[in-house]
TrEMBL record:
<dbReference type="Pfam" id="PF01094">
    <property type="entry name" value="ANF_receptor"/>
</dbReference>
<feature type="domain" description="Ionotropic glutamate receptor C-terminal">
    <location>
        <begin position="394"/>
        <end position="780"/>
    </location>
</feature>
<keyword id="KW-0325">Glycoprotein</keyword>
<dbReference type="GO" id="GO:0017146">
    <property type="term" value="C:NMDA selective glutamate receptor complex"/>
</dbReference>
<keyword id="KW-0675">Receptor</keyword>
<feature type="transmembrane region" description="Helical">
    <location>
        <begin position="545"/>
        <end position="563"/>
    </location>
</feature>
<keyword id="KW-0407">Ion channel</keyword>
<feature type="compositionally biased region" description="Polar residues">
    <location>
        <begin position="944"/>
        <end position="963"/>
    </location>
</feature>
<keyword id="KW-0628">Postsynaptic cell membrane</keyword>
<dbReference type="GO" id="GO:0038023">
    <property type="term" value="F:signaling receptor activity"/>
</dbReference>
<keyword id="KW-1071">Ligand-gated ion channel</keyword>
<keyword id="KW-0406">Ion transport</keyword>
<feature type="disulfide bond">
    <location>
        <begin position="729"/>
        <end position="786"/>
    </location>
</feature>
<dbReference type="GO" id="GO:0014069">
    <property type="term" value="C:postsynaptic density"/>
</dbReference>
<keyword id="KW-0597">Phosphoprotein</keyword>
<feature type="signal peptide">
    <location>
        <begin position="1"/>
        <end position="20"/>
    </location>
</feature>
<dbReference type="InterPro" id="IPR001508">
    <property type="entry name" value="Iono_Glu_rcpt_met"/>
</dbReference>
């Protein structure tokens, strides 16, 4: 009875407590042993003690995890989900390291969060498969975080990554590459091997040819033993080598060599501490979550098809939880992986035992690596840190064509490069598949450095001919270096020996030696001088003034003509002369007088006669004297004192700051000069203007456009521009130097050659060798054939006065052409006058013949009348014989009129010829028609007969009608 009462009281108190708290949160667990179950329940009880004031009560529901995934999944459904668990803590099966993969699969289907405390497989980071899984231990791939920090600490930036071709190996490689890129660590190369093989010698042999001697190794314990054996056989575990291996390849491996480094997760196998941290995370999450909103009940078993509506909400709250626990700071990534875990840095000492030499992780608000380098043992059982790279004495040099630093000439047929003065050395160099010879400032310097530092080299030209700029490619978000910088970053070259400007952008990604030459930026322009074209003699006056002078000549000539024409004193008779008085000045003479006074050519005829015209003539003479004197003085100023001068004054010239459309300036695209303008805020306007202009990939193209006049200014390194100005008299530099910097030799980051090459450059400066190179290649003014600039006036040459000679030649040509025109015109006019004279003579002769015919006709008529009168008197009707020969000849043409008077009528079928009409020896043409106009008709002569052609003439007209 007492037992029953006690139990009733317990149930009543429990119910009252439940009603007081408002909600009971059941936490499930699938653990490895009964001991872990007790630890879990104790952790939940401790959670309840701390949560009483929060009105929440936590219950514990546990099962032992079965090594069979199927039975484990059934246990989750039957024993855990039936107890309304809000979340599940998952460990691993007893006496095995198998992952609890069945737990997150089963719970994830119903949206119940799972907190793993031992699963470190990288596969659990896939949120597409394990949607509701988070863990208090980091995945194996997070060892890459420690590796990167180790490499930075030990100053190794080129490594060989050796990994297995499984999911774990790919995951750690992917994470390492992402982190290594941020600190400029390169893989050379990444070597993949198939797990489970019995011999890996063929996989390891390519490593011997690599430059790097630092190997990052990820493998299981079984594969690690085989690889260690083969690596020791190939001599890859001795001095100058360094190995950093994964946690799986470090522990439980019997033959791990001396000096290897590895990492070990602190508390990684301490299941009790991880249970406590997992329960604390769950309790903290639900305390905050239920205090703000209501949480529905989860599913009660696997028979229900519906998912938990608030499961995702609970999972998101768990991921965001951050606290200090037994294993350090507990926080999670978006994928649910543990962040900021604590790792131990382990080293195999001379006794082949692992020894802790450092820590990495979050402790006391500090995340980083703390290591005792002096206590490290390295492969070969030495205590000197390896350099991490195999130092090769055969280096690859990249350069580009840039006078006078690197000049490229075709390779002779015999294959031997020979230096051409002032070069001292010439080396073979390649541009793709083509062979050339390289010589110049940098080649002579390279020969000296190679002798001092003791290395061999091969030279090739930059593939794209660019210095190098940081640009996006293929519409990608990532930027890459192009040109020589890109080749150095891609390990296609060991040194850049070229006029490479040292600037902050490049120094972030590569190393530079001490500058071998200090220089600045300057501006190259074409020398400008006054125009010496054919119209040079017209320069003293503007076009408007020339037009006004020419107009004034003709206006004055016209006014002189009018004054002399209308003046009463424009004509006069010379004294003591019997000649007639002289005529007034005509327009032609006035024009000649006006031009003669202006050009001072002398006046021989046609001067003004009247006083008014002579006053104007004197004023015109004064005007001409002033004009001629002014022209002469200005001609001397324009031609004799013509001096070449720079087009602009310097970088602050207004034409550079605010250019117009006709003024163009540029620099080489992707060069350090372009970076300088892009970096300087006050030069942003100039940079935008150059961006809109023509792009130049090489300095040669821009300098050639300067010579052609297509580009007005070229901004580039001062040594090159000084060389061009000294070699070409038409070019000059403008203004003072700006943007001072240095030219250096480029090497990869942390290259073992950086210090030696840099010291060699300093020794060359101290010995005066660099000064000799400057005098031989750049400072060549003393050898230049350009005339020196001074203040003395220049002498006039043919180019200055060529226009005057051309004007004289034009006058001669014009005179010759005019004389031919005059001759042709005179000849044409003479022919016209001769034709008119012939026409007048023909007309006069025709008129005379007409009069003769008229007189003859009247005489014949009179004779006929007399004969008829005589016949009528003798009463003879007919006459058988004509009294006159003439009458007989005209018998057929005789008719009698009404008065019986005979009338001579010509036959209707023909015109009488002149021979019939007269006995004169001259034959005359027939009379013209009534509308005849003599000037409009031209006679065509044939012998002595003149025939008139008249299209309108009707042959039936009688001679009487023609008259």
């Amino acid at each position: 009875m007492k037992l029953f009462i006690a139990w009733s009281v317990f149930v009543l108190v429990y119910c009252l407590g439940t009603n007081a708290t408002g909600q009971v949160i059941t936490i499930g667990a699938s653990l490895s042993s009964e001991k872990m179950e007790c630890e879990f329940k104790q952790a939940v009880n401790n959670l309840n003690k701390n949560a009483i004031r929060n009105h929440i009560r936590f219950n514990a529901a546990t099962i032992l995890m079965d090594s069979n995934p199927i039975r484990s999944a059934l246990d989750i459904c039957d024993k855990l989900l039936a107890q309304h668990v809000f979340t599940v803590v998952a460990s691993h099966p007893n006496s095995t390291d198998h992952s609890p993969i069945s737990v997150p699969y089963t719970c994830g289907y119903y949206k119940i969060p799972v907190v793993g405390i031992s699963a470190r497989d990288s596969a659990f980071s896939d949120t597409n498969v394990h949607t509701m899984f988070l863990r208090t231990v980091p995945p194996y791939s997070h060892q890459a975080d420690v590796w990167v920090q180790l490499l930075v600490k030990l100053n190794w930036h080129r490594v060989i990554f050796l990994y297995s071709a499984d999911e774990e190996g790919r995951a750690i490689l992917s994470r390492f590459q992402t982190l290594a890129e941020e600190v400029n660590i390169k893989n050379e190369p990444s070597i993949k091997y198939a797990p489970g093989e019995k011999n890996y010698s063929t996989v390891l042999e390519p490593i011997l040819k690599c430059t790097s001697r630092v190997i990052l190794f990820s493998a299981s314990s079984e594969d690690a033993s085989t690889i260690y054996r083969d690596a020791e056989t190939l001599g890859m575990t001795g001095e100058e080598w360094a190995w950093i291996v994964s946690e799986q390849a470090f522990f439980d491996v019997y033959n791990i060599p001396i000096g290897f480094l590895g990492v070990h997760l602190v508390n990684g196998t301490n299941e009790v501490n991880h249970i406590k941290d997992a329960v604390e995370v769950i309790g903290d999450t639900f305390t905050k979550l239920i205090g703000n909103e209501n949480i529905s009940n989860p599913p009660t078993g696997c028979n229900e098809s519906s998912q938990w509506d608030d499961g995702q909400k609970v999972y998101n709250a768990l991921v965001k939880t951050k606290m200090e626990g037994e294993t350090g700071q507990v926080s999670f990534s978006e994928k649910g992986d543990r962040l900021n875990a604590m790792y131990e840095i382990m080293n195999i000492n001379g006794n082949r035992r692992p020894m802790s030499v450092g820590l990495f992780g979050h402790k006391e608000e500090a995340l980083g690596l703390r290591m005792m380098e002096n206590n490290l043992t390295w492969p070969g059982n030495v205590h000197v840190k390896p350099k991490g790279e195999k130092i090769s004495r055969n280096l690859t040099i990249v350069t580009l064509k840039e006078k006078p630093f690197a000049e490229v000439t075709p390779l002779p047929k015999d294959g031997h490069c020979r230096p051409v003065a002032p070069a001292k050395h010439a080396f073979p160099c390649k541009n793709g598949t083509h062979d050339y010879c390289c010589m110049g400032y940098c080649m002579d310097m390279l020969a000296k450095i190679s002798e001092d530092v003791l290395f061999n080299f091969t030279i090739h030209l930059s593939k794209d001919g660019l210095f190098g700029s940081f640009e996006r490619h293929n519409v990608s978000d990532k930027k890459f270096w192009n040109g020589m910088m890109g080749e150095l970053m891609r390990q296609e070259a060991d040194l850049i020996v070229a006029p490479l400007t040292i600037n902050p952008e490049r120094a972030n990604d590569i190393d530079f030696t001490k500058p071998f030459k200090y220089q600045g930026l300057n501006i190259l322009v074409r020398k400008t001088q006054k125009d010496s074209s054919l119209a040079s003699f017209l320069q003293p006056f503007q076009d408007t003034l020339w037009i006004l002078v020419g107009l004034s000549v003709h206006v004055v000539a016209l006014v002189l003509y009018l004054l002399d024409r209308f003046s009463p004193f424009g004509r006069f008779k010379l004294a003591k002369s019997d000649d007639t008085e002289e005529d007034a000045l005509n327009l032609s003479s006035a024009m000649w007088f006006s031009w003669g006074v202006l050009l001072n050519s002398g006046i021989g005829e046609g001067t003004p006669r009247s006083f008014s015209a002579r006053v104007l003539g004197m004023v015109w003479a004064g005007f001409a004297m002033i004009i001629v004197a002014s022209y002469t003085a200005n001609l001397a100023a324009f031609l004799v004192l013509d001096r070449p001068e720079a087009l602009i004054s310097g970088i602050d010239d207004p034409r550079l700051r605010n250019p117009n459309e006709k003024f163009k300036y540029a620099t080489v695209k992707g060069s350090a000069v372009e970076m300088y303008f892009k970096r300087q805020v006050e030069l942003s306007t100039m940079y935008r203007n150059m961006e809109n202009q023509k792009k130049y990939l090489t300095a040669e193209a821009a300098i050639e456009d300067i010579r052609k006049g297509e580009l007005q200014a070229f901004i580039w390194d001062s040594p090159r521009l000084e060389y061009e100005a000294a070699s070409d008299c038409d070019l000059t530099t403008a203004g003072d130097l700006f943007g001072r910097s240095g030219l250096g030799i480029g090497l990869p980051k942390n290259s073992p050659w950086t210090h030696d090459v840099s010291m060699a450059v300093l020794r060359m400066h101290e010995s005066g060798f660099m000064e000799q190179l400057d005098n031989r290649w750049i400072l060549v003014d003393s050898k230049s054939n350009c005339p020196e600039s001074n203040s003395a006036p220049a002498t006039l040459g043919l180019t200055n006065m060529a226009g005057v000679f051309m004007m004289v030649a034009g006058g001669i040509v014009a005179g010759v052409l005019l004389i031919f025109i005059e001759i042709a015109y005179k000849r044409h006019r003479g022919l016209k006058e001769k034709e008119l004279e012939l026409a007048r003579n023909a007309a006069d002769r025709w008129r005379g013949n007409i009069e003769k015919r008229r007189t003859l006709r009247q005489t014949l008529q009179k004779q006929k009348e007399d004969q008829m009168r005589a016949n009528s008197i003798h009463k003879q009707p007919t006459s058988k014989s004509a009294p006159l020969v003439t009458a007989t000849a005209n018998t057929n043409a005789t008719k009698f009129n009404s008065n019986n008077a005979k009338t001579v009528v010509p036959p209707p079928y023909r015109r009488p010829s002149l021979l019939e009409a007269t006995r004169e020896s001259d034959c005359l043409p027939p009379p013209p028609p009534m509308d005849f106009r003599p000037p409009g008709y031209v006679p065509a002569r044939s012998g002595r007969t003149v025939t008139w052609h008249n299209p309108s003439h009707n042959p039936s007209h009688s001679p009487d009608n023609l008259v």
